[in-house]
């Protein structure tokens, strides 16, 4: 997790693909429109496609036996989503819901397999994309398991700043330019809304963060990094 906003501007997870290989992906796809609140796919569906987001935003969620929703990832234009084991015929382990009106390019696994067989450079780029997904999952598990809910919350705030952050003033403060509710944060770290309220209140008392017009401003990024034992992950990993 980097501490310079200039170095942590959002990187799409398809940055590992060269321009020509991104064109190959889109040339072998079909377009689909998803209305806000609609689902791209459901947990348990057959994993037979990947989805390149052309516009809009999508969240990936996992439901517990008790019906609680855990937000795993939030993706935006330029990202590609789907299960990263395209040739094993598995079922999807998560649900994808459009946060806003979204346009996607749908790539069938049979088309993906054809490109991998035809183009060695595409196969290498695809392996890099799969590796990025694996590392992102590892860091999410670390956030949730190693340093408790305060560590998971601070890590999530840093990830949000890397994904949606903008310079706020010349003191290095960062505005998270998306309205993220306490319920969203609780779903991201597997905590109750009440515990998130308490932790955010503690951070505000320490002047590490504040709210303005419903959006979070981070004033002391280093304090958040200390709580979550930040490992200075590269920017394509340190994101929501």
Polypeptide structure, described:
It is a single chain. The chain is of the alpha+beta class and 240 residues long. It is built from seven helices and twelve strands. The protein has helices at residues 19-27, 109-118, 120-145, 148-164, 182-189, 193-205, 221-227; strands at residues 30-34, 39-41, 49-55, 57-63, 69-76, 80-81, 95-98, 102-108, 165-167, 174-176, 209-212, 215-218. The strands form three sheets. It has a four-stranded antiparallel sheet with strand order 1-8-3-6. Strand 4 (57-63) and strand 5 form a beta hairpin. Helix 4 (148-164) packs across helix 5 (182-189) and helix 5 (182-189) crosses helix 6. The longest helix is centred in the middle third of the chain and has 26 residues, at 120-145. It is globular. Mean pLDDT is 87; it is low at 1-10.
Key traits:
240 residues, alpha+beta, four-stranded antiparallel sheet, 12 strands, globular
- Based on secondary structure, the structural category is alpha+beta
- Strand percentage: 15-25%
Helix fraction by DSSP (H/I, runs of at least 4): 25-40%
Query: Would you tell me the overall average pLDDT?
Result: 87
Shape: globular
Q: Please give the number of β-strands.
A: 12
- Number of H/I helices: 7
Major beta sheet, strand line-up: 1-8-3-6
Work out the radius of gyration: 18 Å
Poorly predicted sequence stretches spanning 5 or more consecutive residues = 1-10
Largest sheet: 4 strands, antiparallel
Keywords: Activator, DNA-binding, Transcription, Transcription regulation
Domain Cyclic nucleotide-binding: 24-116
Protein name: Crp/Fnr family transcriptional regulator
Domain HTH crp-type: 147-222
């Amino acid at each position: 997790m980097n501490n310079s906003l200039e170095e942590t501007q959002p990187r799409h997870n398809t940055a590992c693909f060269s321009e020509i290989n991104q064109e190959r992906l889109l040339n072998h796809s079909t377009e689909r429109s998803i209305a806000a609140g609609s689902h791209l796919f459901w947990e348990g569906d057959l994993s037979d496609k990947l989805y390149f987001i052309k516009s809009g935003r999508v969240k990936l969620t996992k439901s517990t036996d008790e019906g609680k929703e855990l937000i795993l990832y939030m993706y935006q234009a330029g990202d590609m989503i789907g299960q990263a084991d395209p040739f094993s015929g598995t079922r999807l382990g998560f649900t994808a819901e459009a946060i806003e009106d979204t346009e996607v390019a749908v790539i069938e696994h049979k088309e993906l397999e054809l490109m991998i067989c035809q183009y060695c450079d595409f196969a290498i780029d695809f392996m890099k994309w799969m590796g990025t997904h694996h590392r992102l999952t590892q860091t999410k598990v670390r956030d949730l398991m190693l340093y408790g809910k305060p560590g998971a919350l601070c890590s999530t705030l840093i990830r949000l700043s890397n994904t949606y952050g903008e310079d706020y003033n010349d003191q290095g403060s960062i505005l998270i330019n998306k309205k993220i509710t306490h319920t969203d944060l609780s779903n991201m770290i597997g905590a109750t809304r009440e515990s998130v309220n308490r932790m955010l209140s503690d951070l505000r008392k320490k002047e590490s963060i504040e709210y303005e017009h419903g959006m979070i401003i981070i004033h002391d990024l280093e304090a958040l990094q200390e709580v979550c034992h930040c490992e200075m992950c590269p920017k394509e990993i340190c994101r929501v």
